[in-house]
Every structure is written in structure tokens, then in C-alpha cells.
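Aim 2 progress. For G-protein coupled receptor 143, the working sequence is reproduced below.
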Amino acid sequence: MASPRLETYCCPNRDAATQLVMNFQPEVFCGVCIGSASVSLLLTILQLLPKKGQSPRKMPKASSSSTILLLISICDILGGLGMIFRSSVWIGFPGFIANISVVNRTDMWPSAFCVGSAMWIQLLYSAGFWWLFCYAVDSYLVVRRSAGLSTIVLYHMMTWGLAVLLCVEGIALLYYPSLSSCENGVEHAIPHYITTYAPLLLVLVVNPILFRRTVSAVASLLKGRQGIYTENERRLGTEIQIRFFKIMLVFVICWSSNIINESLLFYLEMQPDINEMPLKNIRSAALITWIIMGVLNPMQGFLFTLAFYGWTGWRVDLKWRKREIPWESLSSSTVGENTYPSPVNYQSNIHDSKKISTTDSQQTDEAISILSEGNTSGDDRVTRSSPIYQGW
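Predicted C-alpha cells for this construct:
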């Protein structure tokens, strides 16, 4: 589970709201985190492995969007491993973790483990948020023909740079000047929570806008491809729209509980005594959403692979061979099969116009195929019959 409360718990003089949730059935909570993260980890890897029965095809190169989708899955896998390791230590060595609450001590390993594991989880999921934002940006730029594989370097710089910068800045402000005084004032905690939830809120607010603009641009591309907007083009545009909707749906399901839980805990922190009877329902809601976070946060990795690629099946092919990667473009091989040279008796101006038209059509097809790549849930018969997948 990824929450800024993990770093706050490393403070010996932690606030009452953090103490409430972190001390609520810790063995059960850590067991839930281990179970959910393990299931998600195994299913995510299963989704990404090559499957038997897939016909190998020679693919020229992957797109920047497909690389981003793979990096999102990698961030989820590594974040899930961090959750499993952290929760396992908490369950297996309760005495080791109990030393975190001791203010005057000489053993710094419990605090080092607490801070290091919390930062690892927070950094990986924060990087996943930034990669998801980059995916929305890249999808829009691809349709506008302003992106390509070269832009992946800029995405790496932005994603890892911002993720590390915000994580280090938030942790430094929280633990300044030392762990023993990190919860003595609100000025320590507020910047940490802002730097943690900033990329999450960015995805929730900006990604739907970018996805909506991308879908509108796709419709314009499909209309301009043949000058008409047939049922096949409409279905292809709807398929891309549904894919974006599933991505945002998974994100909202997995992280809305974090926002609700944090709002409830902040409300409790503002009360003189959080153990008062009128606050019983709020305390119960905070504890329920805390457990829900332990289930849903680690499941993001597997649910995202379903949104990206659909269910790829159980039949894993572990034999190495050159084959099609499911997130690569679908149209390039079709372009190679259906494109023929112009007859030699064509006039040069006709040949040039054909060449320009072919190049423009190929760019349009590649832009559309990048947005629908890896999607195995759609009607293959419909998409293959579309002019986007036919020769010109």
C-alpha cells in the first residue's frame, strides 16, 4: 500500500491519526498487503509473458507509447515487491519494528528500514503516476504527429527527475532536522503530503482532458483518411475511447480510497481528541478505507495490464524465439504487405502525388495503430476490414 502515512509512521512522535491506522490490526493489514501484492505481481508477469499460439511476425520497432505502457507495469511490479518485503519484515520481526517508537535509542536500523522501504514504495508508484501522465501526453502528440521514439528520452528525464525530486524534497522537509522532531509541527507534514499526492491529482485531473482531446483528434484523422466516417471507423474510434476509459477507471478504483482515507485522517488530526464518541463513525470509515487501500493499491499493476492489453491467457511460451510483442504497432506489417510500387508508365507528377498520399496515409495509420496497439479485446474482423488496415 502506498501512503505518506508510511513515512510519517517512522517518526517516534507520530500524530494520533497515523497511530490509529498503523496500530489497527497490523498483522492482518500486512497480510492483506502481502496477499494482494503477490497476486497482482504474479498475474502482471503472467500477462506480460509471451503466450503459446501467437503467430510470430516481424515487427520493425516499438512505439514510444508501448514503451511507456511497459514502464508503467515495471513500476507497479517493483512497487509491489517493496510492499511484500516491507510487510514481511513487519510480520516476521515485530520486535525490530517496535524499536521505531523509541525516541532515545542507539540502534538506527529500524528507522533506516522504515524510511528506506517507505521511500522505495512511494518513489516507484509516484514514477508510475508520472509515466501515466506521459502516456496521455504522448497519445495526444502521436495523433498530432508531434511525437516518436525520440521523445522517450524526454519522458525519462521528466518522470524520474520529478519523481526523485518530489520524493526527496518531501522526505527532507518531513524529517528536518531529525526523525525525533519530524511531527512537531504541521509545516513538516503538509509539504510531504503535497509532494506525494501532486502527481496522483495531476493524473486524475489532466489525463481525462488529454484523453478526450485525443479521441476527438482520432475522429478527425479517421474522417480525413478516406473523406468519410464509416461504421468501421466509428467502431475503431470507440475502441480507443473505451481503452482510455478503462485506464482511468482502474486508476480511480485503485486510488480513490487513498484520497478518502487521507481526508478523514486530516479531519481527525484537527480534533482535540480523536477518541471521542461522536467521531466513532469517522474513525471506522478511516480504518475501513485503510484496509481497502491495502487491497486495491497493489492490484493496480494487474488491472492496468487488463486495461492495456486485455486478458492474454494462461498458456505461457517460455521458449525463446523472435515473435511479436503484444504492445507493438499492428499496422506496419500490413503496410509492408499491401503496398505496391507504381507502374513504370505513370507520369512523374502522378507518381509523386501517389507517394505523398501514401506517406500521409501511412503516418495516419501508424498514429491510430499506436493508440490501439496491444488491444486484443476488440473485434479483429472489424478493425482489419477498416480502411485503416487496408492497402491504398
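The radius of gyration is 25 Å. This observation will guide construct design in the next reporting period.
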